[in-house]
Amino acid sequence: MPRKQFDKSLPRWCYNPPEKARDIAGTLGEIRGEIAGDNKPSWFHNGLDIAGAYGETARFVRSEKVLRPVSVENFSTLRELIRLPSLGYIHIRLGRDKEDKPFGDERFLFGVEPNLTGVTSNLLINSQMQRATVNNNKGKLSGVRVRRGAKFEAGEAIGTLNLMNHVHLIAGGSGAEFNALDALIFPNISDTIAPTIEKVLLFDENWREIETAGSNQRIKLAGKSRIIVRAFDQMNGNGGKRKLGVYRLGFQILRADEKPITDVVWTISFERLPDADAVKLVYAPGSQSGYTPQTFFNYIVSNRVDGGSAREDFFEAGQLEKGFYILRVFAADFFQNNTMQDLNIEVVK
User: Fold this and answer.
1) With 183 labelled, which of 132, 137, 232, 255 sits at a CA distance of 20 to 30 A?
2) Whole-number pLDDT of residue 92
3) d(CA 239, CA 233)
4) Can you tell me the distance from the alpha carbon of 328 to that of 343, in angstroms, rounded to the nearest whole number?
5) CATH of the domain at 321
6) pTM, rounded to two decimals
7) Contact at 8 Å (CB) between 92 and 164?
């Protein structure tokens, strides 16, 4: 069948109309799972979630050619996906509609299970034959593949959204993912909402919380401490309860009269996806998102995590002279909206 021509030069979203901004439901680097004492599984979210409706057609955001011998995985699951050289698309019924019927696009090659009436072939056949086979109840789709070298143009259909109701868009190759907001251009996107800092906490090296002796006193510090910031972001168009991860975090030390002693030190950044084993260097206990009823992002802002670099670190109060100071923490989103919050501290010797 002839393929519809699309303007490949224009930025677009992964749905039609291509210029209509969509709700961002998840960002790069958010925790998935939970950081808890019983070692529950936890990992980094490696893409950008773009919300859509169940059964809505998802489309390629730019032109690419399939280069992997196996580019499709997890057929007929909620994590069905296709990976191309620089982008990946997850949570899609590839090449078929919400009723599981093939589009008729011959680049998607489906396997057909044998049935109970003597049909025994499960060879890959073209999509037009598959549609007739499935419609006549002579077989059930058992898998899908896309041949290496197949090319897809921006705007062409990938498939339809499954029950996850969003496209999980991955920018970059496996193990080298970077932030899709930075890598791609989405038309009419805007964000004027600064991140929210819910609380700032200090812990010692052994994860004992450091508190004040009284409500009118400053927190006293003498040695190493961990800075924990509970924060989240939102974007224009998000629902009121939506909590997104922030793009970067950091801190600064000021004297009690607010004269800076240090510049702002940005310690955590999600320009690129951190290494998988760095999740517990970014997120403190109590962090949870994605598969839990509530969302909490407790960032360990005293640690240093930026792309492939990750290490444990501390705020060392002992390097300051005795006296009163302000610990100022920052949370920023990709669109350079910033929020700060102060914590009064006293350095003792």
Assistant:
1) 232
2) 98
3) 12
4) 6
5) 2.60.40
6) 0.90
7) no
